[in-house]
Amino acid sequence: MGNLKSPSLMGEQIPFVEEANFLGVVLDKTPRLTIKIMKRRFLVTFLGVLAAVKSSDSASCTISTYNEEVIKDTINKCEEIILSGITIPAGVTLDINLNQGNKLVFQGVLTWEFYEWDGPLLNITGTDVEISGAPDHLLDGRGNLWWDGKGGGGGKTKPMFFIAHGLRNSVIRNITIKNSPNHAIWIEDSDGVLAQDIYVDNKDGDTMGGHNTDGINVWRSNNVTIQRLTVYNQDDCVAIKSGTNLAISNTFCSGTHGLSIGSVGGRDYNIVEHVKVSNSKIVKSGNGIRIKTVYGATGAVTDVTYENITLEDITNYGIIIEGDYNINTGGAVGVATGGVPIKHLILKNITGTVKESGVNIYVLVKNATDWQWDGINVTGGGKKKTCDGAPEGISC
């Protein structure tokens, strides 16, 4: 809002009674503080009142109008920050740099105005923080305004939605995202993150040109747990680009490109290791289980387990493991390279169906070692492809 002069507080005092109400500030005896940003002329006044009455680190503050400086100031004054029904201007990142121990709560419907740019629409950092949604919340990316069937490869420039950047020992829970213009969530450069009860609803993209609407991507992050994730979209349900000690469980994916490792290679960090994906279901999707490494690149995929995965009505590949991914075109080269070897890959109790037009299992790799497959029962696909480069004992 800029260049506002602080009006006088007029010598008023707020009585400490059961509840006091002054300029939209409500204080009760818990004490618990709620701030509702009102008219422009009261902005500095309410900040002054906040400073005057805050007496505990446990204060809870509600912001219902977007203002970058107000958000920063509130983060420094309050332990719990509630963002309620705000609209973020076009071309602006809602950038939340939380203090240690903060709690961030989304309330009501948050929307972003249209603008062609890379984004992200939302960026959150912090240590020992909790990010959650109230029962009535919705993060509405209004992706239909950007969608044109071309995703990130052309057409309109589409912003990433939510980047969780540099989180440490933190929790993301009870978050609902609707219609992300591009990828929904990136967890990057983070360590010790629990993401649970996340719902990504890009169903509208099926008929309105949604593409590259990934559910959750993990990049350069360690010790990440994702559980009770539901994704309806038009790209990867979960894609692990790089990281160590990662667990994904109790996930439901529909319309997706599957539960994916990769693509791995061609970036500044290209190691995926100690990953377990379990107790999940993939339906009406292009792929089920997918591991893709980049043609001509270097890196490693080591110690990966998929266990108790159910597939239903898969269109292209029930299981696809390929070492020929072209990172520039998003397609396949047709010849695998071994610079990103896949070692110690366990597939256990993978069952389900593929459409007749699809392929049950396809492998095209090089330098792969120590694969253990047990309880694989993927049926229905009428097309056959060879297992090229699979370790001894693995068949398609």
TrEMBL record:
Give a yes or no for keyword Repeat in this entry. yes
Enzyme Commission number: 3.2.1.15
Gene Ontology biological process terms, A to Z: cell wall organization; pectin catabolic process
Q: Which InterPro entries match?
A: Glyco_hydro_28, Glycosyl_hydrlase_28, PbH1, Pectin_lyas_fold, Pectin_lyase_fold/virulence
Q: Which GO terms describe its cellular component?
A: extracellular region
Which keywords does UniProt give here? Cell wall biogenesis/degradation, Disulfide bond, Glycosidase, Hydrolase, Repeat, Signal
What Gene Ontology molecular function terms does this protein carry?
A: polygalacturonase activity
> Which transformation does this protein catalyse, written as a reaction?
(1,4-alpha-D-galacturonosyl)n+m + H2O = (1,4-alpha-D-galacturonosyl)n + (1,4-alpha-D-galacturonosyl)m
Q: Which family does it belong to?
A: Belongs to the glycosyl hydrolase 28 family.
Q: Please report the name of this protein according to its UniProt entry.
A: endo-polygalacturonase
